Amino acid sequence: MSSPSSLVGSLPIRLRNFLARYPPQIYSAAVAPRPTPPETDAPAETTLPSPYTPNRDAKGTHKPDPTVYSPSMALLYNSKEAPNPFLPRKDNRTGKWIPPRFGLRQQADLVKLAAKYKVEELLPPGRKSNEFKATRLAERGLRIKGTGIGQKVKGHKWERTMESRLEERRKAMTEMPEMIRLWRQRGHGRGWKQWPKR
């Protein structure tokens, strides 16, 4: 196993300077405290629900409430003692927002460089980190309305009514032998030769 000094020596100068200015013991995502999700009394679902809405009343999703807990936003933490250089913060004296020390393009470059050298977990949490992107993708879905966690797809009408039609078809198939028997008892099943000639 390589020593920490040899690991630091193998990093590019840009990463070394960043980690020297913002030490991982204070700023990294591993040591940043994260808010925990609120406790709910609802039991966890063991089966996945159907992605299609059964009726028109259940369609669509409303705009998310910004006060509700979000796993992706919980990753972005900014403390007052050691402000995260990747996130904006509010000035205590004036109340105005101070922009992040590193812009989004610089963050993306640093994250790509750190991921290449497998030291991404030493960087502060930010919007360009791979962990944030994966969590956000799971929340929002595949950029298709209704494919995120807890969302439903409206779908076409034939997709929404498919379950009921398949159930009717299955029921009709199970009752088919009885229907054929009754049809033959009434005299309809004598064959095509019994039809009157024209």
Walk me through what this model shows.
The protein is an all-alpha fold and 198 residues long. The chain has eight helices and two strands; from the N terminus they run H-H-H-H-E-E-H-H-H-H. It folds into two domains: 7-37 and 50-155, no CATH class; 160-190. It is elongated, with a radius of gyration of 31 Å. It starts with a helix and ends in a 13-residue tail after the last helix.
Largest sheet: 2 strands, antiparallel
Count of the domains: 2
**Strands across the major sheet, in which order?**
1-2
Give me the Rg, rounded. 31 Å
Name the structural class: mainly alpha
Q: State the low-pLDDT regions, or none.
A: none
Strand content: under 5%
User: How many H/I helices?
Assistant: 8
**What is the arithmetic mean of pLDDT?**
80
Q: How many beta-strand segments? A: 2
Please provide the ordered H/E string of secondary-structure elements: HHHHEEHHHH
Distance between the termini: 98 Å
Instruction: Note the overall shape.
Output: elongated
Helix content: 25-40%
Spell out the key features of this protein.
2 strands; two-stranded antiparallel ribbon; 198 residues; 2 domains; elongated; 8 helices; mainly alpha
